[in-house]
Design brief:
Oligomer: single chain
Structural class: mainly alpha
Mean pLDDT: 86
Number of strands: 3
Distance between the termini: 15 Å
Length: about 300
């Protein structure tokens, strides 16, 4: 097989290096979508490459193994056996990580939906811990907001408007799908973990910008984000489903500046990288098909 089968395994690295720089500038929405799609392409391509490498183990299975020993046939030699074995193990490890992450997310969603029935898309839990989270919908049940009495007591009425607008933006843009997709990509290819982190930050920034636009006051939005983040960290409340907080200092700093410009040129790199990954994966597939034809 050609060298192209190995390239998708490492082409996620340039995307991981680009992701933090992309997340730091410009509108967060287009960046979040671009990184999510490119990460999914990179993860699928690397998984496909591992599968192709692992499939070469079939040459050790009868009757192909007998053909391999035939002196009258000159069959192409696939990748070394240890390489194929490692590829198979990596494929299994990625599947396990993906299953664990999906189970955790589904279970967390189920528990959050079980806290109470929403009234006007809102559930208020009588908890002292300050928390506000967008709970994704399920079959026949739309998403809703879950807030605690702790966060309501902490914030002023205007700051509550910011928090509600922020969480409703998560629901409106279905941010849980973006974070779930990048988490799945990182589970299959750990090189993409920085991309997952960048997208988690970007969806928070996206919701911040929507909230600031709705209340018409970026300073108010910055104060609300800062107070909610400080209270949550002080109470030991971690992010929920990857969309509940984090990188608060950078978020507040961004809200103290003017509304970001689109800067679509910064997304050229990930788009071109995604196209290159697809092209390399197709080349690897073609090489594998040629090998399979020779053996079969």
């Amino acid at each position: 097989m050609t060298f192209s089968v190995y390239l998708p395994l490492v082409l996620g690295l340039p995307l991981a290096l680009l992701a933090p720089r992309i997340a730091a500038r410009g509108l967060p929405g287009p960046a979040a979508w671009t990184l999510t799609v490119t990460a999914a392409v990179a993860a699928l391509a690397s998984t496909w490459s591992l599968a192709l490498l692992a499939l070469t183990l079939l040459d050790d299975v009868p009757p192909l193994a007998a053909l391999d020993q035939s002196p009258t046939l000159e069959l192409p030699e696939p990748v070394p056996g240890p390489v194929a074995l490692v590829a198979g193990l990596l494929l299994i490890a990625g599947g396990v990580r993906l299953t664990v992450d999906a189970h955790r997310r589904i279970g967390t969603n189920r528990r959050l939906r079980g806290i109470g029935e929403p009234e006007h898309d809102l559930v208020v839990a009588d908890w002292s811990a300050p928390m506000a989270v967008a709970v994704p919908g399920a079959a026949r049940r739309p998403g809703h907001l879950l807030v605690t009495t702790g966060i309501l007591r902490l914030l002023s009425a205007s700051e509550r408007r910011v928090v509600f607008a922020h969480e409703r933006a998560h629901l409106a843009h279905r941010h849980h799908r973006l974070t779930a997709a990048t988490a799945a990509s990182a589970a299959m290819n750990p090189l993409l973990i920085p991309v997952r982190t960048a997208v988690e930050f970007l969806v928070e920034r996206w919701a911040d910008e929507d909230a600031a636009a709705e209340v018409g006051d970026r300073g108010l939005a910055a104060r609300a984000v800062a107070r909610a983040a400080l209270a949550a960290s002080g109470a030991g409340v971690g992010p929920v489903l990857g969309i509940g907080g984090g990188a608060a200092v950078r978020r507040v700093r961004a809200l103290t500046r003017p509304t970001p410009a689109p800067l679509r040129g910064r997304l050229t790199g990930p788009v071109l990288l995604g196209l290159a990954i697809v092209a390399v994966a197709l080349a690897a597939t073609e090489a594998f098909v040629d090998l399979a034809r020779a053996w079969v």
